[in-house]
TrEMBL record:
<protein>
    <recommendedName>
        <fullName>DUF1922 domain-containing protein</fullName>
    </recommendedName>
</protein>
Amino acid sequence: MEYLVLLCPRCGRPSAARARSRSHSCPYCGATFQIAEATLVERAPSGREAQSIIRKLLEGSAK
Ligand SMILES: [Zn+2]
């Protein structure tokens, strides 16, 4: 199943959503938003790929 790496419109942090879902809730701040309204960072072919992209994004922003 394809996943999308999205940036939360409220806190700006990346999280993974299933490509077919329409709305998503941010695991960090709890905001629920429409996937069409969020910034798409990258598409990933699996949840594992999506998590690895997110880890890199979070590591990059921490430096
Ligand atoms: Zn958030």
